[in-house]
Amino acid sequence: MGRFTPDALELPIVQAPLAGGPSTPALAAAVSTAGGLGFLAAGYKTAAQVAEDVAAVRAQTDQPFGVNVFAPPAAPGDHDAVARYAARLIGDAERQGAMLGDARHDDDDFDAKLALLHDLRPAVASFTFGCPPPDTIAALQQDGIAVWVTVTTAAEARQAVGAGADALVAQGTEAGGHRGGFDDVAPGAIGLLALLQLVRAETDRPLIASGGVMTGAGIAAVLAAGANAAQLGSALMLTPEAGTSAPHREVLQHEGETALTRAFSGRTARGIVNRFLREHDAEAPSAYPEVHHLTAPLRKAARTRGDADAINLWAGQAHTLAQARPVTELVRELAADAREALRAAAVR
């Protein structure tokens, strides 16, 4: 049997990995059971924790699913800049009754997670924050695992295709959460529609469109623009299967401006503007994962206290269209709406 392709899906819907809390085995299993492709987020977890998540998904569904891994980060950020930023955050940590974390530089247990992929063999392994070298991709493919790489520019798409990626996740700047491209110093800032056209002009590899897709009409639009499937993140964060925190859920349901910021993690990401973002965005250095580790205890304490003004409220630009409905029901209805939208467009 060949490697998995998005065209094998019953429904052209892929769940965004949603690292940092919203990702759960229940969410991934429900999306796959509905006919889409669910994803587990390996980011911020140990390889052992990811193995438990994979087992939990397989206990709930026999359908294909994927695992997303953070590619190793670039060189460490500027130590002095990180230290100055830490000094600015002392008051915020005290307000939450927390200590700041150790601003360490690590690779998120990359080698152990890579070994786990070879061992457990999910249908898809996707990579964010960079493109693995050709030999890493080829080795996964030898084990029957399809390799997808997140890209935010045409140049990144060319690099991923050259390395042998089976498919590309084209992430527009509308997307919530971290920019998935290769270089945080100059993150891709291209809207999804423009990006799909630019990447499609470069390659005939399957494309998964990500960024601001919340409705059936949005799914139809990216399919018409050349994508093979749509990736949904914010659209699923209010579902009961998602692990979205209570304060995050509350804010997602209301209108709120989003902005790109490094304030929470040291890497550019889109979230709903709150006090922490407003006060610290300008001084936040490009230093991932150092800043992520620095602010993690503060943010954990704020979630526990229900303080939405001190946590990362990752969300795409159309987040107010999210629906608090069971995943299977929502995914199937969105797919039906997409079919109807495509029929209506053809008539027009």
Describe the structure.
By secondary structure, the chain is of the alpha/beta class. It has one domain: TIM Barrel (Alpha-Beta Barrel), CATH 3.20.20.70. The termini are far apart. The mean pLDDT is 97. It has an 8-stranded parallel sheet with strand order 1-9-8-6-5-4-3-2. It is globular and about 55 Å long. The protein contains 12 helices and 11 strands. Helix content is 40%, strand content 14%. It has helices at residues 25-34, 47-60, 79-96, 110-120, 134-142, 154-163, 192-200, 216-224, 246-252, 275-280, 290-305, 327-347, and strands spanning 13-15, 38-41, 65-70, 124-128, 146-151, 167-171, 177-178, 207-210, 229-232, 258-261, 269-272.
Quick tags:
348 residues, alpha/beta, 3-stranded antiparallel β-sheet, 12 helices, globular
Describe the structure concisely for a colleague.
The chain is α/β, with parallel strands linked by helices and 348 residues long. 40% of the residues lie in helices and 14% in strands.
Topology:
Elements: E1 13-15, H1 25-34, E2 38-41, H2 47-60, E3 65-70, H3 79-96, H4 110-120, E4 124-128, H5 134-142, E5 146-151, H6 154-163, E6 167-171, E7 177-178, H7 192-200, E8 207-210, H8 216-224, E9 229-232, H9 246-252, E10 258-261, E11 269-272, H10 275-280, H11 290-305, H12 327-347
Parallel strand pairs: 1-9, 2-3, 3-4, 4-5, 5-6, 6-8, 8-9
Antiparallel strand pairs: 7-11, 10-11
Helix pairs in contact: 1-2, 1-12, 2-4, 3-11, 8-12
